[in-house]
Design goal:
single chain; alpha+beta; six-stranded antiparallel beta sheet; elongated; LptG/LptF_permease; membrane
Length: 341
């Protein structure tokens, strides 16, 4: 690597790190607000909020790194143009093609890493995030308080005399009204504890009696230990393998859209590198303030195209959008940079 390449990379890396920190912080705040909104439904402590945030990190990186790379490259080259350093380089015979090759290589590496993130890390983190939320929802469904009437566990009305923070109960009474299939039942137990096994709640009763009221009379059964399960509507699912997860793109349109859109976001650094060079390398005397509008147009054009084609035909959208962006920016690069410098 020659001195010019090291010089360009130094300026780029400094700006990239600063912009990434700012954009990552803003994106993290947005995701964290979404996470904290769940506390209105389920109770979570600080560590559990942190766990959910970690599960969202792979997706956060996919959204922040491509935009940061593009903006940092545009501004880096524009700042060099502002100081007339790029003009000096080209005057001394430095080929702008070398700059393009340098940053195309970096963008290709970044896009490759992001694609691995999309294909490998995001499916796992998304399933872990979903399972964790369902686990907490199932846990929140059973929050019985002492000396309160009208509380339910599955089909049973529950009354308890005493409870502690570890969900240990004393003086437990359960009542089930008669149905077409079952007779009226009453259960009295000395102690009880609640277990949550992968989202399935189990009430473990100790030292109690079961009373069943039939037409013939009352039947009594004493027990040492008894288990009552409550099956939630949504069960914490088993983690799918990477292949099983992405096989769903052939049957699930939403999953196909997610894959298409995330792949396009991952390819954005490579697709937009020539656009960044065309925007950032300017003759400052004639172009002093158009860079930010052009960056906004380039990003908006790509995202709108990615959204529309991913919705219409997600299977072909990554290739089509990438080629449209890359080829159109290549023509602009040829006209603005190669023809002038």
């Amino acid at each position: 690597m020659n001195r010019v390449s090291r010089y360009l990379l130094k300026h780029f890396s400094e700006l990239f790190s600063s912009l990434f920190f700012i954009l990552f912080f803003i994106t993290s705040v947005v995701f964290f607000i979404k996470i904290t909104a769940l506390t209105a439904i389920i109770k979570m402590n600080f560590w559990e909020l942190g766990t959910l945030y970690i599960y969202l990190l792979p997706k956060t990186l996919v959204y922040t790194l491509p935009i940061t790379f593009f903006v940092a490259l545009c501004i880096t080259l524009f700042n060099l143009s502002k100081e007339n350093e790029t003009i000096v380089l080209f005057t001394l015979g430095y080929d702008p093609k070398k700059i393009a090759q340098l940053f195309l290589g970096l963008s290709a590496l970044l896009s490759f890493i992001l694609i691995l993130d999309v294909l490998l890390l995001i499916p796992i983190s998304k399933q872990l995030n979903s399972n964790f939320i369902e686990y907490k929802k199932a846990e929140a469904k059973f929050n019985i308080k002492a000396n309160e009437f009208g509380q339910r566990f599955s089909d049973w009305l529950v009354y308890i005399e005493h409870s502690d923070n570890d969900r240990r109960y004393k003086g437990v009474t359960l009542y089930q009204a008669a149905t077409q299939k079952d007779d009226e039942k009453l259960i009295v137990a000395t102690n009880a504890i609640i277990d949550n096994e992968k989202g399935v709640l189990r009430l473990n009763l100790d030292q109690g009696k079961i009373f069943e009221f039939t037409k013939e009379g009352i039947q009594q059964v004493d027990f040492e230990r008894m288990h009552i399960n409550s099956q939630p509507k949504t069960i914490v699912g088993k983690l799918q393998s990477i292949i099983e997860y992405w096989n769903g793109v052939f049957t699930d349109h939403k999953r196909a859209y997610d894959l298409s859109f995330l792949l396009l976001i991952s390819l954005f650094p490579l697709a937009s590198t020539l656009a960044a060079l065309s925007i950032g390398i300017v003759t400052y005397r004639y172009n002093k303030g158009g860079i930010y509008f052009e960056m906004f147009v380039a990003i908006s054009f790509y995202l709108v195209l990615a959204t529309l084609l991913s919705t219409w035909h997600p299977q072909s959208a990554p290739l089509v959008v990438f080629l449209i962006m890359f080829l159109s920016t290549y023509k602009i690069y040829q006209k603005r940079i190669r023809a002038m410098f």
